[in-house]
């Protein structure tokens, strides 16, 4: 995550292109420290805490994928629970065949990515509300199909086998580390995807699809790629969910509540930024842990938070941070500096006024 | 390449009963600069949509650089060398001006990273928006948005540049600058098709003028000849302009509007 500068020598005018307005090498170091500290959590905190953090990992992974879809590719999916459920069932089915659930995690992610291909074919021509409803219908259809198979628990589901040999402490720790690994890989994948050429394409598609096409962007291909990556990510989160809950119930893993959580977390954190879902997850988990016992009030307060953010922080909470502190933990933009030009200050450039003679 | 760069062969496009292109045939050679005039609703922008791939024709064939592109989408045609601007600028608002140009250079121009940086910087310098390189495009004013629109089309490294009323709303000195940019681009071998109401912007650079009305070509040839044709006067200019043309004021620098009015000084709405 260090500052990458690329200098291009030109005979007429030299310039330098950086990926951020300011040196952000420290954020890379800080991220590394955070990951190392988190890796040691099972040794230093109670298992109840690691269980909560695993929940946060699941929510963050799912929200990062939803953010990629809605915040970059302009695809507002209400059916991402399809991949959460499929990821959980990949784990269950392979565990029933004697394969360790932890070993199945990457298989579940890849499997969900593969399943996303034919599903994309079904929904790719739809936009906005139609796309949202079609993805929701797909998720419900997949759940209904899976419920038909009594060998994997039918409509009631079944406990996850293959983990009985592990002590509770070890199982909690393994689950935690698996969650940490899934989250780090998911965030790294999103970051690398957006930092590469595809990042510009996705942002352009979100801003103006027609202009993106006439600038040479392969909109369909970019959206397909995002849908597949988001499917794989949500599949990994679903697999982690199955392992953390030690059972798979179709009504629970295919619940639309997962997509509601993804959307809530992303929108309050900041849609269209990598940092948004991280901040949103932190806020959501704090609210959940402090208010969950208030039942209905908990949901009312969540709703009020969403309304407040929509009214007073249109770019989400991270938007406020960015506006005031000008910090980007994951710099994906391009910053041009001409030779001999002084680095610009950190103030956002003022909106230029039209200057016209006469 | 010896043949035409762009060929339209009996291209037709209808939206229900509304005909926006009827049996249009056109050939534009490499390096040629063609102006297109016509009243509002004549089908000028739709013609650009058909050429750039934003619109699919109902009938007919479109060839570009020797290959049939009728079924290719806008992205594929852009990669082949068709760069276009939009009448109402369509910037990528959340991206900086420099990033707007980078995506065009990388995707449309097919340039790798460092080459795309150089192409974007060149487009910035050419269109005079270097000072706004790191400004989010949504913060630009209308005139700068128009410059960005042109810069983005140039960054795709086009062999055919489609300009859709880029001079609208510009002052005389700005029009002169724009004409210089187009001349410069054309001198490097890029063919240009330029839709414009501001005739004074077209006349210094175009070698051929086409008049479009009701989805049909009603005049095609040398600009002075086309503007003098009775059919063009009747369909496009109206009787008042006919009188002005007789006095030679149009060539001196006038704006021709779709409703038949002529503005002698400025084109600003």
Walk me through this protein's architecture.
The complex is a heterodimer of chains A (358) and B (269). By secondary structure, chain A is mainly α. Chain A has one domain. Chain A has 15 helices and five strands. Chain A has helices at 25-39, 41-44, 47-72, 81-96, 101-123, 128-147, 168-195, 197-207, 209-214, 219-245, 250-253, 257-269, 275-291, 296-312, 316-325, and strands at residues 5-8, 15-18, 158-159, 247-248, 335-338. The radius of gyration of chain A is 22 Å and the shape is globular. Residues 1-12 and 344-358 of chain A have low confidence and may be disordered. Chain B is α/β, with parallel strands linked by helices and 269 residues long. Chain B folds into two domains: 6-81 and 159-263, Rossmann fold (3-Layer(aba) Sandwich), CATH 3.40.50; 91-157, no CATH class. In chain B, 39% of the residues lie in helices and 23% in strands. Chain B is built from ten helices and twelve strands. Chain B has helices at residues 44-52, 74-80, 97-107, 113-127, 142-155, 172-187, 199-202, 223-228, 230-246, 249-253; strands spanning 6-15, 18-28, 33-37, 59-64, 67-68, 82-84, 160-164, 191-195, 208-213, 216-221, 255-256, 262-263. In chain B, a hairpin with a 2-residue loop joins strand 4 and strand 5 (67-68). Chain B is globular. At the A-B interface, helix 8, helix 9 and strand 5 of A face helix 2, helix 3, helix 4 and helix 5 of B.
**Can you tell me the CATH architecture of the largest domain in chain B?**
3-Layer(aba) Sandwich
Corresponding CATH superfamily of the largest domain in chain B: P-loop containing nucleotide triphosphate hydrolases
Q: What radius of gyration of chain A results from the CA coordinates?
A: 22 Å
- Terminal Cα span of chain B: 42 Å
Seen as an oligomer or otherwise, the chain set is heterodimer
Total domain modules of chain B = 2
Please give the CATH class of the largest domain in chain B: Alpha Beta
Biggest sheet descriptor of chain B: 6 strands, mixed
Radius of gyration of chain B: 18 Å
Biggest sheet of chain A, open or closed, and with what strands and sense?
3 strands, antiparallel
Quantity of strands of chain A, as a count: 5
Query: What is the overall silhouette of chain A?
Result: globular
- The helical percent of chain A reads 55-70%
Main-sheet strand order of chain B equals 6-7-8-3-9-10
Largest interface: A-B, 40 and 51 residues
- Low-pLDDT segments of chain B: 248-269
